[in-house]
């Protein structure tokens, strides 16, 4: 494994922050920009932002741009210092290690001067995470380059928890602010979780590449670095967060007004009642992966996770005029860093990693090819998200009786086995379907009448039967 330069440029990415740049971008939503929901007017005319779940003001707090700068300075330092540590097997104590470095504004002999308030940067389990990078073919200098050579792009797609999301400019990593309890849970989960990933890199489970904390103005902002499921270079037409539950599983009016809303289970059932059709091999690989992933989550007693699914409609995209934020555009001025292995949706279910491959050379841009009932060609970008929120379970129990009254079988929080079972069933029976095989001519002759009766009972499956080859 290549190691990061021992003398990293500590100002990487930091000086290139553009204060005039728009505050956030809607993930893959044709580049439409809008302010984050968490941005509120301030008396002086300057906006104040809530950093994730924390109210942050100008008096000793931090702004999103300062947070981005601090993250890049911190990661640059931590990757540099990691290169001085000898490579060795991961030991149990590595999971409990925390490294801490203070960044005064005026700089120190270890840290550069910067324009933000002084902050402390903590890195959790650096040696253990180095091993995970290796597992997924990420060299430390590529990790550094992806996250720190250009400003992080803020996404408007924060969820109900109010987390902030940033994406690295090369689309590879997502940086998410998490609650204290979530960070604590991840720390506990790490050893066991990665035993599973080690055995089976073919997974749709989130891949965590780093856990950090920025301490400033008496506040702790914890962040995780994960694989990015939704490339911003691909225009997404619709996005769903699916759990297999129907209780309160419709996107709110506020959500629907966003450039790329995250719709939920009931919306899916209404929009795509026939489901999405995959060729048999892809369907089998996907369902097998979901089954294994659910078993892992169940073994950790994790529930309430979702399948994030974003859909690119190839046929619609071909009819749309190219926007200024050209889809599929790749910045050819920048040398492409090594992509993480098993990182695209397709690789996650097939387990075939593209060593040295890049998104541009992949016909399907990493998406899983599928069709809707109209026969339109789709690319699906999927992954399991929100696995760190099990601690909310106790709280949610207080509310679950309401759900029981509503629909005894449709409560969003159940014991892990039930949750996993229902999740899989919904995904593999309702959301994803196998493209029906074209009957051979001899079979057609034998069962001609019953075939046409079956096809006639559903116009949609009839149109699918006539699709010759999936993309
Ligand atoms: P909630 O409390 O509603 O569950 P949250 O703050 O925990 O929300 P998530 O549900 O994890 O946030 O994600 C919110 C949105 O962020 C998703 O709908 C998706 O658009 C985006 N997102 C989350 N994780 C990823 C990821 N790994 N890659 C790309 N986008 C992501």
Overall description:
The chain is α+β, with helices and mostly antiparallel strands and 471 residues long. The chain contains 13 helices and 17 strands. The chain has helices spanning 64-82, 126-135, 140-148, 180-199, 253-256, 265-271, 280-299, 314-319, 345-350, 393-406, 416-431, 441-457, 459-465, and strands at residues 39-40, 48-51, 54-55, 98-103, 119-124, 153-155, 165-167, 173-178, 208-216, 219-227, 238-242, 262-263, 276-278, 306-313, 368-371, 377-385, 432-434. The strands form 4 sheets. Strands 4-5-9-10-8-7-6 form a 7-stranded antiparallel beta sheet. Strands 12-11-14-16-15 form a 5-stranded mixed beta sheet. A 3-stranded antiparallel beta sheet has the order 1-2-3, with no helix packed on it. Strand 9 and strand 10 form a beta hairpin. Helix 1 (64-82) runs antiparallel to helix 3, helix 7 packs antiparallel against helix 11 and helix 12 (441-457) packs antiparallel against helix 13 (459-465). The longest helix has 20 residues, at 180-199. The protein is globular and about 80 Å long. The two termini are 36 Å apart. Mean pLDDT is 75; it is low at 1-22, 29-52, 54-61, 325-338, 353-361 and 447-471. The chain binds adenosine-5'-triphosphate (ATP).
């Amino acid at each position: 494994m290549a190691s990061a330069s021992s003398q990293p440029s500590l100002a990487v990415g930091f000086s290139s922050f553009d204060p005039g740049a728009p505050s956030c971008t809607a993930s893959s939503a044709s580049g439409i920009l809008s302010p984050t929901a968490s941005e509120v007017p301030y008396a002086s005319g300057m906006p104040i932002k809530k950093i994730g779940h924390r109210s942050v003001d100008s008096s000793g707090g931090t702004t999103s741009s300062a947070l981005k700068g601090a993250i890049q300075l911190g990661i640059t330092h931590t990757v540099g210092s990691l290169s001085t540590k000898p490579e060795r097997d991961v030991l149990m104590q590595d999971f409990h290690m925390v490294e801490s470095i203070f960044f005064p504004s005026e700089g120190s002999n270890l840290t550069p001067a910067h324009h933000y308030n002084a902050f402390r940067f903590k890195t959790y389990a650096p040696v253990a995470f180095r091993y995970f990078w290796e597992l997924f073919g990420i060299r430390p200098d590529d990790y550094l380059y992806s996250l720190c050579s250009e400003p992080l792009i803020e996404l408007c797609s924060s969820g109900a928890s109010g987390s902030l999301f940033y994406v690295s400019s090369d689309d590879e990593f997502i940086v998410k602010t998490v609650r204290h309890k979530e960070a604590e849970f991840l720390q506990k989960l790490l050893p066991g979780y990665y035993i599973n990933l080690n055995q089976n890199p073919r997974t749709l489970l989130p891949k965590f590449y780093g856990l950090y904390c920025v301490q400033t103005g008496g506040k702790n902002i914890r962040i995780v670095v994960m694989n990015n499921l939704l490339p911003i270079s691909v225009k997404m037409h619709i996005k769903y967060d699916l759990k297999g539950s129907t209780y309160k599983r419709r996107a709110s009016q506020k959500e629907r007004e966003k450039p790329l809303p995250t719709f939920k289970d009931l919306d899916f059932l209404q929009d795509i009642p026939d489901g999405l059709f995959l060729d048999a091999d892809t369907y089998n690989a996907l369902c097998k992966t979901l089954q294994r992933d659910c078993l892992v989550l169940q073994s950790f007693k994790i529930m309430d996770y979702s399948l994030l699914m974003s859909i690119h409609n190839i046929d619609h995209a071909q009819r749309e005029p190219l926007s200024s934020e050209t889809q599929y555009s790749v910045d050819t001025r920048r040398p492409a860093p090594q992509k993480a292995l098993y990182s695209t949706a397709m690789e996650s279910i097939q387990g075939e990693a593209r060593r040295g491959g890049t998104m541009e050379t992949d016909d399907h841009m990493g998406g899983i090819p599928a069709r809707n009932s109209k026969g339109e060609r789709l690319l699906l970008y999927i992954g399991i998200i929100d696995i760190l929120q099990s601690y909310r379970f106790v709280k949610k129990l207080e509310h679950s009786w309401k759900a029981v009254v509503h629909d005894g079988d449709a409560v969003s929080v159940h014991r892990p086995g039930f949750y996993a079972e229902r999740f899989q069933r919904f995904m593999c029976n309702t959301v994803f379907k196998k493209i029906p095989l074209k009957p051979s001519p001899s079979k057609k002759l034998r069962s001609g009448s019953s075939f046409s009766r079956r096809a006639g009972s559903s116009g949609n499956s009839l149109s699918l039967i006539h699709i010759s080859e999936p993309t």
